Model the fold of this input.
Amino acid sequence: MDIDFSGWTTNTQLQAWIKEQAQLCKPDKIHLCDGSKKEFDETAQLMCQSGAFVALNPDKRPGSFWCHSDPSDVARVEDRTFICCKNEIDSGPTNHWRDPEEMKAHMLQLFNGCMQGRTMYVIPFCMGPIGSELSLLGVQITDSPYVVCNMRIMTRMGEKALKLLDKGAPYIPCMHSVGVPLKPNDKDSSWPCREDEKWIVHLPEERAIWSFGSGYGGNALLGKKCLALRIASAQARDEGWLAEHMLIVGITNPEGVKRYFCAAFPSACGKTNLAMLKPTVPGWKIETVGDDIAWMRIGKDGRLYAINPESGYFGVAPGTSWDSNPSAMETLSKNAIYTNVALTDDKDVWWEGMTPEPPAHLTDWKGGDWTPSSSEKASHPNARFTVSAYQCPVLDPAMDEVEGVPISGIIFGGRRASTVPLVFEARDWEHGTFIGASVSSEKTAAAAGKVGELRHDPFAMLPFCGYNMGDYFGHWLKMGKKSDKMPRIFHVNWFGKDKDGNFLWPGFGENIRVLEWMFNRIEGTAEAKETPIGLVPTSLDLQNLDVDTDALFEIDKEAWLKEVKSIREYFAIFGDRLPEGIKKQLDILEANLK
Ligand code: OXD
Ligand code: MN
Done:
């Protein structure tokens, strides 16, 4: 197949790779993407014609589309996600491993002819601000027009990335197919995917990604979890930086002092809400740099600087409302893609938690009729919106800053009904690294599997670390030794419950009180006391809040000793890859509790 690259790229290595993939996948057509609005509109139009997209009511949500996936393709598939490095031990006990050569041979068979009857799209994209030394380029090949539309929102896609590729800049090749070739006269489904063959494959040593059989979220938008976390974390280890599952926010106090924080929470634990928090305490302001991923390097002044590699939000829709996240709702007023939410009769969208009362009739996420008496939910719990960050009313002005933003504090958190207090602070970087390593959280719907079970999720990176997690802990410890200006580290738990199952903390906008305490700890103006687990506030502003302070800050030694046991058992899986500093901190915690 002849491909006309004129006006697209002069990079002959890239051309050769695209030709090779075209020969393998045998698409009917090839579309070299330019990332323009016109291209987005035409692709979305094509999807409307095929029935894959429904254009929403332009009076309600201009430029927006609704779609629903195959019911078997609704979340990241962690058990089908592989880290393929030469030695199994280097992928570690938390990842699935296959030999890279065997895996590639298998993937080549799957990709052979997989795009017959389809268009192969080639998407050049940049993760991070164009021109930043912290940014990375990728090129994704896909047969999914849904991916093309989403990648235009989630990444800096098109011409600017192509200019860098023309100069020979390195890029991460990302191969993706939904895995459903079409014979002439075959009728396509609105969400082609494979129930039997899903493979999300990472080759960290050659920095490549191969994804087959799924069209959903992190399985298919390869810039996000695959590149910006799994491949980037391995690259970050080699090059001495950090690729983290963290939001980035700017916090300004009433005196006008601004500090940036990063926060790591497991999927679907309210990262997007925290990133756009509307403070209830007067005078405080929050601005959003990112809601999911942070890449961080130590700058010339010794401080840690972060960029958000993404340019959009792929957020969980259910639970998002004018009460819980007004800035997200405003961001979502136009130019958004909605996947697996419900469709209203006047072609708007609805999801559980958006309004207290549901509409009288909806089309549910499977495309069927729904009324409030239906036994199933109208939207899938992992239903998503895709929307540009540049529509966010509280977008931080430094979003495109090539140097990144200086980070003063790092926050870890999980969803814990008991044991873990509202907030505590690490005594130092090593202790903070231990706190990150021992995060556990109740499982949510963002990944396939049973919701509600407690699982260890170190640094909220369990599904996203591209190498041995024990080595990753070691990398964090090493980073802390590189500078004496590293951020302070905290842990929060917004999800503590009383004996009747009621939340102890109101959350949302009130979380500013906890952020205020952290901010002031960094300023040196807030008090804390030593406890066995770390530093707990003695000066948190809880005025006008009806909360049970004792319950919020209770440190139940028996429960914590059980926690230590569970952490010790969990850490045993890392064997001799568990760094001394982490073992030492666990021993200190145990001794403090006894
Ligand atoms: C996400 C996730 O989509 O963490 O951000 O699952
Ligand atoms: Mn995430």
Q: What stands out?
A: Residues 318 and 416 are 20 Å apart (CA to CA).
